[in-house]
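Honest question from a wet-lab person: if I give you the sequences of every part of a complex, can you actually get the arrangement of the whole thing, not just the pieces? Trying it with mine:
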Amino acid sequence: MISGRRVKLRRRDPKAGLAYLTLAAGTVLVAFPFYWMVASALKPFNEMFDLRLIPTHPTLLNFAEVLTRTRFPRWFGNSLIVATITTVSVAFFDSLVGYVLAKLQFPGRGFIFVMILATLMIPTEMLVIPWYIMSSAYGWINSYWGIMFPGLMSAFGVFLIRQFMSGVPDELLDAGRIDGVTEFGLYWRIALPQIRPALAALCIFTFLGNWNAFLWPLIVIQGADMRTLPVGIALFSGEAGSSWNLIMASSALAVLPVLAVFVVLQRQIIEGVTLTGLRS
Amino acid sequence: MSVPQLRLGTRRALWAYTFLFVPLLFYIAIRLGPAFSSLYISLHEWNLISPSKPFVGLQNFRLLARDPRFVQAAVNTVRYVLVGIPVQMALGLAVALLLQRINRFRGLFRALYFMPFVTPIVAAAWVWQWMYSESFGPLNEILATVGLPLQPFLRNPGQALYAVAAMIIWQYLGFQIVIFLAGLEAIPRVYYEAAEVDGASGWRLFRHITVPLLNPTLVFSVVYGTIVFLQLFTQVLNMTFGDQGGPLAGTLTVVLYVYQLGFQRFMMGEAAAATAVLFVAILGITLLQIRVLSKPVEY
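Yes, you can. This is the full assembly:
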């Protein structure tokens, strides 16, 4: 059975073996930085620079030190708070706006949609200066609100959700109206469950985007306690000297949860990229 | 009959605006307003510390044009685009074509190539720095083993930009692959079959069917990649954190220079002017994409 199938495959494409080999070689190159990060994080300090591929005396001491001696847990918590709140906010407001723009008739609808869409063209770099001036004027510097406020809604999400909301049948909403469902209920209980896959993709990307965000957090955060994970790790050498063992352990601790989430949600994430990439 | 209907319409419009109230406030106060205020700041001498902020017209733009560091940042940014985009696209397309050839483990390979795209890039930058290290990096270890001279990589003004670009290509390769795979899957099989009947194969199939029919995907990929490369900041800053912009500003980008001007030297006027230049560049590329892509694809 097995050998018969293999023969069949070979006959169909004689170069398939070569394709597998090339792809595997590429994978080794792509995965090497991850491997190096984890392998180094497992090495004791005096073996850091021996460049052996496999640690001879693997230890979890570096991880323990990062978790107890540095502010890493605090930064991790900050990132979790910031990414969670922005994701909930984006999911709620973007889906609400997307629903209103797709399903309700009212004067000014087209204008509002174009206005929101136009903000997609503005690069973040252009906004950070006014945001900073605004934040200093209102005392938002170095606060959670200061880190989060620019990301609480996303024009891209509105655009995405509106596309999917257009596919929700009007009959469904009309039936709800006849049953006496409130206008908010029509959105929340009838339309929203229909677009769950799109909403899930938006949530994943918003969370990842905010988890990895760097430019604005770097500007608005001033104290070591308020740092998000990327800012904390970027400024880590000041925190831990140039201890590469601690830098590698904290990098690994920052990367591994993201990769774990990626492994679980891999299909949705990659399909989400196709979905969103091709629609934009 | 028409009166209650009108009322119903008014009622719905009221609801619509109730739902939109907070979001509209957000888009006006946090997006559109600041965009205009950035343009306003770019026309003023705006030092955060000094209280007087006089109108200076286009002087900030003239200062930038004469500022060798800004000119270098702009040239570097263009170099990142010219180096990064072709390599990234060629590799992405090659891997996508290979993935199309195989039957098993396609999802696994795709996922492995995609990993860097979701990785916190600040953490990845540390590892890359180490890999490039002159005295204790694995790359130089390999060079030494095969008897080649050691390379300074990030410490050499001529090499640093390419070293950083390699890391960015590593980061975005998986994204390109996924986009190309979707594009390839959208090409109807019958064209290949028809061409094979006519005796075409290999390179000619690729040249005359894949490339023309993949055109919208290629355009999207160029535009997306270019916008990403024009906004390079995090990767560049973190690859040489202690020496922002690399040796002799060899890796400096426009956005990194904006950060230095605005938030280290507090020259907000010039920084805002630089972002206006960036905005015009990105807008131009986006409009170009819309024009190219709105042409219908002829199968």
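Two things worth pointing out. The mean pLDDT of chain B is 90. Chain B touches chain A through 87 residues (CB under 8 Å).
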